[in-house]
TrEMBL record, chain A:
Membrane topology: Multi-pass membrane protein
Alphabetized UniProt keyword annotations: Cell membrane, Membrane, Transmembrane, Transmembrane helix
Name the UniProt record assigns to this protein: Branched-chain amino acid ABC transporter permease
Keyword hit for Transit peptide: no
Locations listed in the record: Cell membrane
InterPro entries: ABC_transp_permease (IPR001851), LivM-like (IPR043428)
Chain segments annotated as transmembrane: 14-34, 46-74, 94-116, 123-143, 180-200, 221-248, 268-293, 324-344
From TrEMBL, chain B:
Residues annotated as domain ABC transporter: 6-235
Protein name in the entry: ATP-binding cassette domain-containing protein
Family: Belongs to the ABC transporter superfamily.
PANTHER family membership: ABC TRANSPORTER ATP-BINDING PROTEIN, HIGH-AFFINITY BRANCHED-CHAIN AMINO ACID TRANSPORT ATP-BINDING PROTEIN LIVF
């Protein structure tokens, strides 16, 4: 049953299996293991970014397509929920309409971009996605009447998903709407991840891998490369949009910086590379490490800086304000020591 | 003579600024093996790649099984019944042998009887069925490359130098498999530099020079005429 659930795609490494089970356990019980607003915020972000990174890996790792428009699809999903909630009012129907319309709009836009540019060389596709993503980001900032511009949009979601909704307590943790919201994000992310795992392990996924390795050979067998690449782009865009919708439901706010910025695109790329391209489990490892580092490296450095106070230079180097510098160093080291990503390295050692 | 399976008339193909095929006229009879011979760089591989559609013919026409395929894209030519085994093998290294074979059967599931026949021709493929194709030896990769073309029944197989760089024992396995394929009634257009293999397998032959077919006839006629070989290819089969 379990192997069927993961589409018979086993981690193929004992350490990796342990890591994945550990992450699943921590995320499943996060509200009880790590009570507190910040830790719950981090856990929800990890869930959402696992899906976002895995959907990008369907493109980059499995299909060999470089796209810079992934945050655009993520943003479309988020704005879908926000706009539906603003215009339809608080309610589950608004969340469903927003999520579905965001996913459909993203898939259609991906189809359009794909049909125009996937026939040409990969670099042109990458450039076109960059141009379209930039144009959409500018448009969202400029159309302030509709999107709230740079300020973004605040909106209400059903009360059962907000901190105001209280159900009592369990194991000393108060059960609120925020906790229910977390489990909505957790289970939806888990379902989307398993869906992506199924896609890459299906005959369709195998054809994508064949195309990535040798597109001419795949054509010579009889596969229409443009069709498969376009379908992969649409699926990836739709899943990214649903991840964006979950993010919007979680935050109850959307803005260009939180959903459409190019920085998020770079983060996604780094997470894919750190975790390991062409493996869905790489998305889990990459997103977990990256989001944890983003949220806790600064604190860790504060502690380290305090502990080395008497030493020359080191406390200054470990100053919490320099956390981005150390984050960069960590990534350079991880790419140097794990060129095939952490998952690739762990699998090759077993 | 029955209708030819493939007919090329006045085919010209450019690769970037180079004019490689300069009016190829080639007839491949239905059934049997047609050898495409010639020195290095005369356009043999480009001819095969033009037939499968990797390179589009600039002018001229290609007819396959009576239909004009000149403007068809590669996947349509493959689905029409042309199998292609490239010189570089083109296996999918990250996928297992099994996955390579499943992908090769593009129109449906693998036929078990056909798979047994392939295993009989290439026993190592059964042994390494679940292994990543990238971990196979050179000879095993070539076996997989040909086996993939054999995974579905095709009317015409285009095979580019299948014995290149292989050990004699594996060459004999390859030749045996191609002979089997021929017995099943397939038509094969084979580019081969190993003249003993060419002589053993070929029914008809076409010799290329400077992007054109300069001679076409029975393989036995070419194999038995050292002077003709010397004139067409600059060397004799015995000398090779």
């Amino acid at each position: 049953m379990l192997t069927n659930l993961i589409s018979d795609d086993r981690p193929r490494s004992l350490i990796l299996t342990g890591l994945l089970l550990g992450i699943l356990f921590c995320l499943a019980l996060a509200p009880f293991l790590f009570p507190g607003v910040r830790s719950l915020e981090t856990a929800a972000r990890i869930c959402i970014f696992i899906v976002l990174v895995a959907s990008y890996d369907l493109l980059l790792g499995y299909s060999g397509i470089v796209s810079f428009a992934h945050t655009m699809f993520f943003g479309l999903g988020a704005y879908g929920v926000a706009l539906a909630s603003v215009h339809m009012g608080r309610g589950y129907d608004a969340l469903i309409v927003g999520t579905v319309s965001g996913a459909v709009a993203s898939a259609l836009l991906a189809l359009l971009i794909g049909l125009f540019s996937l026939r040409v060389r990969a670099i042109f596709f990458a450039m076109i996605t960059l141009a379209v993503a930039s144009a959409v980001a500018v448009l969202v900032s400029q159309l302030s009447g509709l999107t709230g511009g740079e300020d973004g949009l605040n909106y209400s979601i059903p009360r059962e998903l907000t901190p105001a909704f209280k159900l009592g307590s369990l194991f000393g943790v108060s059960i609120t709407g925020k906790l229910l919201n977390y489990y909505l994000v957790f289970f939806a992310s888990l379902a989307l991840f398993l869906l992506l795992l199924r896609i890459v392990n299906s005959p369709f996924g195998r054809v994508l891998q064949a195309i990535r390795e040798n597109d001419f050979r795949a054509e010579a067998i009889g596969y229409r490369v443009v069709f498969y690449r376009t379908l992969a782009t649409c699926l990836s865009a739709a899943v990214a949009a649903i991840a964006g919708s979950l993010f919007a439901i979680w935050l109850r706010y959307v803005g260009p910086d939180t959903t459409l910025s190019f920085e998020i695109m770079l983060d996604i790329l780094l997470m894919v590379v750190i975790g390991g391209m062409g493996t869905m489990y790489g998305a889990v490892i990459g997103a977990t490490i990256f989001v944890l580092a983003q949220n806790y490296l600064q604190n860790l450095m504060g502690v380290a800086s305090g502990a080395t106070e008497g030493l020359p230079l080191i406390p200054q180097l470990l100053d919490p304000d320099r956390w981005l510098l150390w984050l960069g160093v960590l990534f350079i080291l991880s790419v140097y020591f794990f060129p095939t990503g952490i998952v690739g390295r762990l699998r090759s050692e077993d | 003579m029955s209708d030819p399976i493939l007919e090329l008339s006045g085919v010209h193909t450019d690769i970037a600024q180079y004019h490689i095929l300069q009016g190829v006229d080639l007839v491949v009879p239905r059934g049997g093996v047609t050898m495409l011979l010639g020195r290095n760089g005369v356009g043999k591989t480009t001819t095969l790649r033009t037939i499968i559609g990797h390179w589009q013919a600039k002018s001229g026409s290609l007819r396959f099984d009576g239909a004009d395929i000149t403007s068809l894209p590669t996947p349509a030519r493959a689905r029409a019944g042309i199998g292609f085994v490239p010189e570089d093998m083109g296996i999918f290294s990250d996928l297992t042998v099994e996955e390579n074979m499943i992908l090769a059967a593009a129109s449906g599931p693998l036929d078990p009887a056909r798979l047994d026949w392939i295993f009989a021709a290439f026993p190592p493929l059964r042994t390494f069925w679940r292994s990543e194709a990238g971990n196979l030896s050179g000879g095993q990769k070539q076996m997989l490359s040909i086996a993939r073309a054999m995974a579905e029944e095709r009317q015409l197989y285009l095979i580019d130098e299948p014995t290149k760089g292989l050990a004699p024992a594996i060459i004999s396995t390859m030749a045996g498999a191609l002979r089997d394929l021929k017995k099943k009634g397939a038509s094969i257009l084979l580019v081969e530099q190993n003249f003993s293999v060419a002589k053993a397998l070929g029914d008809t032959a076409a010799v290329m020079d400077d992007g054109r077919i300069v001679w076409a006839g029975q393989m036995a006629e070419l194999a038995g005429d050292a002077a003709l070989q010397e004139r067409l290819m600059g060397l004799t089969m015995e000398a090779h």
